Amino acid sequence: MPDLFIDGTWTSAAAGGRRTITCPADGTHVGEVDESDESDTFRAIEAARRAADDGRWRDVPPQERAAALGRIADALERDTDEIARAEALDTGKRFEEAKIDVADVVSVFRHYAGKGDVVERVREVDPGQPGVVSRVHREPIGVCSLITPWNYPLLQASWKVAPALLAGDTFVLKPSEITPHSTILMVRAVDEAGVPAGVANLVLGTGPGCAGPLSTDPRVDMVSFTGSLAVGQHLMREAAGTVKRVALELGGKNPNIVFADADRKAAVDNAMTAVFLHSGQVCSAGARLLVEGSVKDEVVDTIVERAQHIRLGTPFDENAQTGSLTSAEHLAKVEDYVAEGIAEGATLRCGGARPDDPALADGHYYLPTVLDDCRVDMHVVQEESFGPVLTVETFRTEEEAVALANGTRYGLAGAVWTGNPEKAARVARGLRLGTVWVNDYHPYVAPAEWGGHKQSGIGRELGELGLEEYQETKHVWENTEPAPTGWFS
Ligand code: NAD
Questions:
Q1: Distance between alpha carbon 465 and the CA centroid of its chain, in Å?
Q2: Coil, strand or helix: which one is 390?
Q3: Which residues are catalytic?
Q4: What does the pLDDT look like over 15-26, one tens digit per residue?
Q5: What distance in Å separates the CA atoms of residue 272 and residue 207, rounded to the nearest whole number?
Q6: How far is the CA of 128 from the centre of ligand 1 (A)?
């Protein structure tokens, strides 16, 4: 079956492009998929525009659109194992972890499936004069370009596809070229749910190869992008030419602040999952440990000791605790990043190399790494490695902790660990982050907004705002007693 989905038909790339997908965990062949060029993207945009303009989805009652989301959730849940397998093989993450991702994705679709009654709520405002009804409507934006990354391909797509469909938009979705399989299965579920032709469209390929029109074509109304800061900046510039709405979920260099009065057992354990989960390939990874000086040695020594026992392995290795990096290029970048940190004066406490286990030789693995004695002005503290690398900084006071935590251009997420609720509240208020966890790390829920402050992004996903991103506002002023104004008489 062909892999592109354009105007309700599964189709091959017009120019015959194909791409081979290889599992980064062991180099095995995962499959071949169609690879689009811009002509496919233009066809997809044309289909999405037509579907938006004739109202075939916009005019479906919101409760019926919501019901379609429920059917998508059911299909994804039914096919959990197949989808998780596809996600694990493409990304190199553990199958068990990928199953959790699918469950999360199902809950995102179910969350928005429950919002059919509020999605088109109309707000009546006081027009300030009799004989007038003044209403503010929320409507679909139109055609949305949805561009997603490789670390959580399915999850990141669901945060866009579910609200866009509920809002009544049409879209062209482009996942990362190296992890397409789970997204293809998601679009199959959308097709199975009976969403009309042209509403959901899927192209596959590289940014330069096929994505250009997604941010420049005048028929597109909005670009919603999750990925790196550099590509986000590029898309924003491109979208400016036709003044498209832009929503950006970009990188992070997320502080995890541990005070001396924290529950240290919980703080240390969570510091491990904060940074080493999915080998650090998490936008909200707690890759910066900020620890109060008086407990620094105890906290860092424990993390270093435990990090050396993390078991790496392939998606179906039941002993593995985490998987590989996603590509050879990415592994090389992480290696360069660590080398730069050491050159800048960081102390390598563990890791800093590929594993020497011959069983892992065919995958792109990197050992969990701790860089101690870091300063906020170092490149390794300022920029994300997107790998299993923890940098350690020390602070003495609450004010210093907040200032250090805010000392990068990013502002996605972070945590504060303390046994003092007032201190936790003060620090949370001072942090310029889109998400702050207090005595926890990583959880998110579909009803709460997700997104970045500063250069971590623009706009929000999930929650109410994550739906409003896909809507336009229209004020309708209706005079029920029309009369001449007499102005020019
Ligand atoms: P990336 O920016 O390289 O690619 C993301 C997507 O953009 C891919 O689909 C890619 O093909 C596409 N793309 C690349 N160049 C393009 C171009 N010129 N025009 C249009 N599209 C283009 O990011 P990545 O390496 O796939 O993902 C990792 C990054 O994503 C990290 O920086 C991470 O922090 C970020 N991320 C952020 C969040 C969040 O919620 N804020 C979530 C996940 C990942």
A1: 15
A2: strand
A3: 249, 283
A4: 999 999 999 999
A5: 33
A6: 48
Q: From the centroid of its chain, how far is CA 480?
A: 47
The pair of structure tokens assigned to 144 is: 């949305």
Which of 38, 101, 146, 150 to probe ligand 1 with, by most ligand atoms within 8 A of CB?
Answer: 150
80-91 vs 62-78: helix crossing angle, rounded to 10: 70
Do 194 and 71 meet the contact criterion of CB atoms below 8 Å apart?
A: yes
**Element (H or E) spanning 389, and its range?**
strand 389-395
The alpha carbon dihedral of 161, 164, 169, 175 has a sign of negative
Place 339 in a pLDDT band, splitting at 50, 70 and 90.
very high
Work out the mean pLDDT of the chain and round it to a whole number: 98
The residue whose CA has the least distance to atom 12 of ligand 1 is: 207
The answer to whether the CB of 195 falls within 8 A of the CB of 5 is no
Q: State the pLDDT at residue 165.
A: 98
N residues, the chain: 489
Residue 351 CB–ligand 1 contact under 6 Å: no
- CB of 236 closer than 6 angstroms to any ligand 1 atom: no
- CA of 252, closest atom in ligand 1: 34
Measured between alpha carbons, how far is 214 from 223 in angstroms, rounded to an integer?
7
Task: Supply the residue whose CA is at minimum distance from atom 40 of ligand 1.
Answer: 249
Say what the pLDDT of residue 216 is: 98
Neighbours of 428 (CB within 10 A): 16
Q: Which residues contact 449 (CB under 8 A, 6 or more apart)?
A: 434, 460, 461, 462, 463, 464, 465, 466
Give the N- to C-terminal CA distance of the chain in Å, as an integer: 70
Give the atom of ligand 1 at the shortest distance from the alpha carbon of 205: 11
Share of the chain above pLDDT 70, in %: 100
Whether 79 lines ligand 1, by a CB cut-off of 6 Å, is no
Q: How many angstroms does the Cα of residue 175 sit away from the middle of ligand 1? A: 9
> Which distant-in-sequence residues (6+ apart) come within 8 Å of 185 by Cβ?
79, 82, 83, 86
Question: 423 C-alpha vs ligand 1 centroid, how far in Å?
Answer: 35
Using the mean position of ligand 1's atoms as its centre, give its distance from the Cα of residue 363 in Å: 22
